[in-house]
Every structure is written in structure tokens, then in C-alpha cells.
């Protein structure tokens, strides 16, 4: 059974901010992929690569995910080995789910992961963050 990763999307105020930043970085990445570098390499690699996704927390709310296609060890200019999460470039909107701040990333079981938005709702304008969080907290979004 796959396992997901949960990560804060620091510096982004919306899914569009995440998409714009990834688009600006695209020339540095392999075609059709996005890369996110994190300090720690997941120990549950096989479970993640069995269909897992990276769920993004934006302004305290899980709003979207990207499929994880691979994990690679990389060493940057500072000589420190890190983990590159190789992601599908498609950003999939999910139902809003509140999350408290945390450092690094966390494993996220499929049973605890928000569902993808129903077909036809992916292009809807997102709710204002405060409203989306309030609805998510009472289980209405």
C-alpha cells in the first residue's frame, strides 16, 4: 500500500503561487517533472514509490498534491547529501484539510489524505484561505 508525504509549501500563498514557482524552475528540471529537494531521505521509499504523492500544505491547509515519481540522493555545492523528490508536473487540487505547522515533512497514510476534488471542480477559484480553513475544520470542504 502506498504512503504519502506531507510538506509545508513555504512562501506560497496559493496553488497558483506554487505552480508559478515550479514553472519558473522548469528549465532546470527534466521534461514533465518537478523537483523538490528536502534534507532527509525517506526510509519508506518502496511504499512512497508504490503510488504515493506529495501533499502540499499552503497557509495551514492541505490544498493539492503531486505524484511522487522518484527519489534521488543529490549532493549540492555545500557537500551535504539531500533527497530530491521527483514529482509529476501536474498539480492535483484536493479537498481542503487543515494542518498545524511542522518542520520538515511527515508521512501521510492514504486513509488520512484528503480526496482529490470532484471532476469539474478542479478549475473552480479557491475559497479565501480563512473560509477554506473554517469549512475544513468543521468537515464541510
Characterise this structure:
The chain is α+β, with helices and mostly antiparallel strands and 141 residues long. The protein has one domain (4-137). Helices cover 17% and strands 36% of the residues. It has 3 helices and 7 strands; from the N terminus they run E-H-E-H-E-E-E-E-E-H. Strands 1, 2, 3, 4, 5, 6 and 7 form a 7-stranded mixed sheet that branches. The longest helix has 11 residues, at 15-25. The mean pLDDT is 88.
Short description:
Helix content is 17%, strand content 36%. With 141 residues, it is an alpha+beta fold. A hairpin with a 2-residue loop joins strand 3 (53-58) and strand 4.
Question: Key terms for this structure?
Answer:
single chain, 141 residues, alpha+beta, 3 helices
Residue share in β-strands: 35-45%
Mean pLDDT: 88
Tell me the number of structural domains. 1
* Broad structural category: alpha+beta
Report the span from N to C terminus: 26 Å
Secondary structure tally: strands: 7
| Rounded radius of gyration (Å) | 15 Å
Q: Major β-sheet, in short?
A: 7 strands, mixed
The gross shape turns out to be globular
Low-pLDDT sequence parts: none
Q: Please tally the helical runs, counting DSSP H or I stretches of 4 or more residues.
A: 3
Report helical residue fraction: 10-25%
Order of helices and strands: EHEHEEEEEH
